[in-house]
Amino acid sequence: MPVDPERDRRIARRRRLLIIETVLVLAISLGQSAWYSILRIIERMTRGVPLAKQTSTLNASVTPGRPWLDLGYQLSDIAFGVVPALLAIYLLATVNPPRGGVRHRLGLVGPRWGHDLGAGVVIAAAIGIPGLGLYAASRALGINTTVQASALQGAWWVIPVLILAAVMNAVLEETVMIGYLITRWLQVGWSTLTVVLASALIRGTYHLYQGWGGFLGNVVMGAVLGLIFTRTRRLLPLVVAHTVLDVVSFVGYALLAPHLSWL
Question: What is the Cα–Cα distance from 129 to 120, expressed in whole angstroms?
Answer without folding.
Answer: 14
